Amino acid sequence: MAVPKSSRNFELRHLRYFIALVEEKNFERAAMRLGIAQPGLSQQILNLEALIGIPLLDRTRRSVQLTLSGQLLFDQARKLVAQADFALSELQRVGRGQSGKISIGYVASAAYSGVLTESLSSFRQDFPEIELQLVEIEMRQQLAKIGEGELDFGYIRPPAPVPIGLATSTVLREPMVVALPQGHPLASHHAVDLTALADQTFITPRQPADVGFHSNTLEACAATGVIPKVSPIGRDFTTIMSMVAVGLGISLVPKSLQCLQLPGVRYVELSRAHMTDLAIAYRKSEGSAAVRAFIAHHRARYPRSEFR
Asked: In 3-state terms, what secondary structure has residue 187?
């Protein structure tokens, strides 16, 4: 469908000039408000009338008076300009990362550590209009979905295979402790050595040997010369603690998990420190300004972390 010739050069500035003239009711004051010369404003109003094809001002009067068509245009023009200004403002806010949406995956232990809640709470104080969507999801699925664009950001427990195009950074290093059944002979001790637990079954999350806490457990035991019997059967740490409580085994867990107080479970420190990391994962090339702001927020909050 062909565009009418009269509307091809119609611009928002014509409406802004017209609105200013009507509100000021005087060409000289309107021109000053707009920062243009009065003859230029007069010409722009004539151009607007020519584009529309109907008179907007009643020129039989000495003061600025609107025709019926002019009044109708004025009412609609204010709405159109307000909508355009709002849309432009929103686009600029999105471009600056002040609004938008971020989808975030996390492993449950990130919430237990406090990093998840602390970092999200502080981010929301600075960017209250950005919508944060949270989903608890297994670490390898997180990384895959970030790479595919279904998630924007993730909190993970390394080690894990990181897809090409993703970056990770450690935001917390914390010691591990051992979770023992309440009736275990060592449950009342202040600290234990892993060599004293060599004959125990270590329950880990359902992960390959080189991933997450399965890997953490093997590394900690190897450092003390223990060859553990590992049972990677836990869906998550809550399930694993329930298994420990009923005597199905023991488990190495991050120290922050002690906030999860299940009946029948005792947390005991290790006499030799063994550490576990909490990290964030994100795309190296990120198009969303909101997500870039979220990454920058973590850089500022965890300045000692190694971002790569």
From this structure: coil
